[in-house]
């Protein structure tokens, strides 16, 4: 209820102060997803470690590179150990296992490992999903892709031609999402992966009772301990747990932005701007609501 009240004020602020037409959304009762179609939420990215009956959905800017590295190690230890010290990004390199243990849906995993029986995967495997606080995740994506252009060409199309303008970007992201319903825009997998709500990915609303949700916060020690505990519960041997602990504490992801001064500058700018935070609260309503996260 408190979040709905906050969302109502965010919506009213956009309409009255900023003049954005939000009449499409009955924001006091519904989230943006109410107006979209089920196919908008069917896209997902999963990695598996079948030896331990483990899957993990991975989402952009929510520790996805480390997830891919850990699951590559658990899937093909020999190949991982041969290559991870020789490649860019080390353990977080996405190309060591390539797509050998990657799937686009739980159903596709079931086709390979349980004769298309999804229930087998959902009940007898541990299905992890790492979730990041929405403001932190948004800032990580925006600074990487739009401010610093890490890993992309200067003229890439993924910032709506807004460049470093956070207000422009959030307005365009908002318009992009609400226009999915009337097909004025189409799902962009790259933008989805980095900026759509996390609860819209991994077929979350279909499988949410089957996911083990782990919240990735600034308290990294707490997060990593919880993450490693889930691996231990899936009977990953202690020596492998120790090695994974070493990997996650010592791997430096090139496109990481959390420790950069410019990220802190953009965060301060965002948190002080009621208009920008109103857009954040509406765009990421489902994440705040589904994962019981407080708005900032």
Detailed description of the structure:
It holds the Pfam family Sulfotransfer_2. Keywords: Signal. GO terms for molecular function: chondroitin 4-sulfotransferase activity. This is Sulfotransferase family-containing protein. The chain is built from 14 helices and five strands. By secondary structure, the chain is α/β, with parallel strands linked by helices. α4 crosses α5 and α7 runs parallel beside α13 (about 275-285). The radius of gyration is 19 Å and the shape is globular. It starts with a helix and ends in a 6-residue tail after the last helix.
SSE topology:
Elements: H1 2-16, E1 46-49, E2 54-57, H2 64-75, H3 77-83, E3 102-103, H4 106-113, H5 118-124, E4 126-132, H6 134-147, H7 166-178, H8 189-195, H9 204-207, E5 211-216, H10 220-233, H11 238-250, H12 261-271, H13 274-283, H14 285-290
Parallel strand pairs: 2-4, 4-5
Antiparallel strand pairs: 1-2, 1-3
Helix pairs in contact: 1-13, 2-3, 4-5, 6-12, 7-13, 10-11
Helix-strand pattern: HEEHHEHHEHHHHEHHHHH
Instruction: Give the biggest sheet.
Output: 5 strands, mixed
Class per helix and strand makeup: alpha/beta
The averaged pLDDT comes out at 87
Radius of gyration: 19 Å
Strand arrangement, major sheet: 3-1-2-4-5
Shape: globular
- Helix proportion: 40-55%
What's the structural domain tally?
1
Number of discrete helical segments:
14
Distance between the termini: 16 Å
Number of strands: 5
Strand content: 5-15%
Low-confidence stretches: 23-29
């Amino acid at each position: 209820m408190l979040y709905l009240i906050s969302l109502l004020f965010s919506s009213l602020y956009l309409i009255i102060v900023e003049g954005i037409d939000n009449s499409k959304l009955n924001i006091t009762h519904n989230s943006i997803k109410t107006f979209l179609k089920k196919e908008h939420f069917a896209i997902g990215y999963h990695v598996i470690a079948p030896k331990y009956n483990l899957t993990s959905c991975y989402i952009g800017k929510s520790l996805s590179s480390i997830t891919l590295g850990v699951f590559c190690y658990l899937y093909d230890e020999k190949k991982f150990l041969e290559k991870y010290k020789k490649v860019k990004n080390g353990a977080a390199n996405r190309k060591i296992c390539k797509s050998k243990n990657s799937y686009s849906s739980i159903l596709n995993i079931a086709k390979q490992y349980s004769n298309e029986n999804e229930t087998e995967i959902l009940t007898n495997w541990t299905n992890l999903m790492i979730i990041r606080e929405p403001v932190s995740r948004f800032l990580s994506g925006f600074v990487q892709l739009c401010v610093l252009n890490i890993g992309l060409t200067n003229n890439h199309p993924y910032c709506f031609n807004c460049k470093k303008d956070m207000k422009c970007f959030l307005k365009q992201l908002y318009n992009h999402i609400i226009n999915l319903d009337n097909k004025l825009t189409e799902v962009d997998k790259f933008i989805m992966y980095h900026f759509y709500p996390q609860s819209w990915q991994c077929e979350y609303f279909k499988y949410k009772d089957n996911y083990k949700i782990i919240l990735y916060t600034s308290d990294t020690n707490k997060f990593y301990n919880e993450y490693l505990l889930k691996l231990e519960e899936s009977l990953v041997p202690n020596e492998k747990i120790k090695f994974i602990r070493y990997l996650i504490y010592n791997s430096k992801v090139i496109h990481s932005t959390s420790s950069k001064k410019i990220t802190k500058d953009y965060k301060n700018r965002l948190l002080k701007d009621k208009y920008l935070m109103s857009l954040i609260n509406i765009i990421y309503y489902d994440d705040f609501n589904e994962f019981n996260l407080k708005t900032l």
